[in-house]
Amino acid sequence: MELSARDLAILSFEQSLWTEAGPKEEAIASELGLTVTRYYELLNNLIDRPEAEAHDPMVVRRLRRMRDQRRQSRQDLLAKASEELS
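Above: the chain sequence. Below: its structure as tokens.
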């Protein structure tokens, strides 16, 4: 399955974000016309696709690492909270 124009725009947005000033949420709405929630739903699905990794491996792998780190942090917090309740 090929990447859509929206998929390419999201990858491009993530690639160029580091040079942009201002809040990311505002840029998502103004540049992509998406809500923040919808943007992250699309982004998380997109970075799991092999076509996205083939198109921009550095950006996709960075985003996957960041996502995995956030997930691990949440799991660690839940485990710590569970231990404190015990």
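The longest helix spans residues 57-85.
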